[in-house]
Design brief:
- There is one protein chain.
- It is built from ten helices and eight strands.
- The model has no long low-confidence stretch (mean pLDDT about 95).
- Strand 1, helix 1 and strand 2 form a beta-alpha-beta unit.
- The protein has a single domain, classed as NAD(P)-binding Rossmann-like Domain (Rossmann fold), CATH 3.40.50.720.
- With about 300 residues, it is α/β, with parallel strands linked by helices.
């Protein structure tokens, strides 16, 4: 018996890296898995269905249940078909793991409009389309009398939480996903739907390119950057055991689980009247002295 027995999960970008690790781990815990992946390059170009087929073959060979799906998460109608495919194959849908993403690293002064739009399209629109159709499905079930126990698991990033040099578009998109998660959690709780986000740190095509030195932990006694390290927390968040957890962002690395504290009110000063521009600088300097130092942007010293 696994903690996700008879639960159906859709995982986007599930053919490689973190998505593949999630798919295998969910299946090992008894879930029915929809392995969604168009097989694009790291930049989001091209298509290859063989990678998703390979993950399904691994799951089935181990005695699990899975289907491959090659729909584009950024296409409104295609995203609906992903939900429909899960229900047609397994009779229900319980969990959406929004994992797919691309990266177009570039210093801000050299960034192009096409790179910016492509990054927002996959990360933000992709998270929106699939989750929106899943919520429509779940709300219809609730209106028909079902008691929901549904999950949205989004993917943000340390880059989205603190910024990262040469990743203006990626950081912006991932920061938006963290904010989206808070809104989803607040709005969807009444339907029996939770929403949480992950900021995983693991060895993938994306991180090997950007953080090669940090990712080089293979062969050590504990491979801290193995994507499989992230999967147990994701599986637990997708299980019935996590119903009390929503609106959270977790940073995950190796054996470490950290709950993000998020934006909150810091030090303040109130003049009790309209400020004179001449006096604002002194007030701001006082606030900077009193604040908790922020985390540094990735890539700065």
């Amino acid at each position: 018996m696994g903690i996700c027995d008879n639960r159906t999960v859709v995982i986007t970008g599930a053919a490689r890296g973190l998505g593949r690790a999630y798919a295998l781990a969910f299946a090992a815990e008894g879930a029915n898995v929809v392995v969604n992946d168009i097989g694009a390059s790291l930049a989001g170009e091209g298509r290859d269905t063989s990678a998703a087929d390979g993950v399904v073959a691994e799951i089935v060979a181990a005695g699990g249940h899975a289907i491959a799906n090659y729909e584009d998460i950024t296409d409104w109608d295609a995203a609906k078909r992903i939900v429909e495919a899960a229900v047609a194959a397994f009779g229900n849908l319980h969990v959406v793991v929004n994992n797919a993403g691309i990266v177009r690293d570039r210093m801000f002064v050299s960034a192009t409009l096409d790179e910016w739009d492509a990054t927002m399209h996959v990360h933000l629109r992709g998270h929106f389309c699939l989750s929106r159709h899943a919520v429509d499905h779940w709300r219809a079930k609730q209106k028909a009398g079902a008691n929901l126990d549904a999950r949205i698991i989004n993917t943000t990033s340390g880059a989205g939480l603190q910024g990262s040099i040469a990743q203006a578009a990626y950081s912006t998109a991932k920061g938006g996903i963290a904010a989206l998660t808070l809104v989803q959690a607040a709005e969807l709780a009444r339907y029996g739907i939770t929403a949480n986000a992950l900021a995983p740190s693991a060895r993938t095509r994306m991180t090997e390119q950007a953080f090669a030195d940090k990712m080089a932990t293979e062969g050590e006694s504990f491979d801290v950057m193995d994507p499989a390290n992230i999967a147990p927390a994701v599986v637990w968040l997708g299980s019935a055991k996590s119903a009390h957890v929503t609106g959270c962002v977790f940073e995950l690395e190796g054996g470490r689980i950290m709950l993000e504290d998020g934006w909150r009110e810091g030090p303040a000063v109130d003049a009790g009247k309209r400020w004179d521009p001449e006096d604002v600088g002194g007030a701001v300097d006082k606030l900077l002295d009193e604040r908790v130092p922020p985390r540094k942007v990735w890539g700065t010293t």
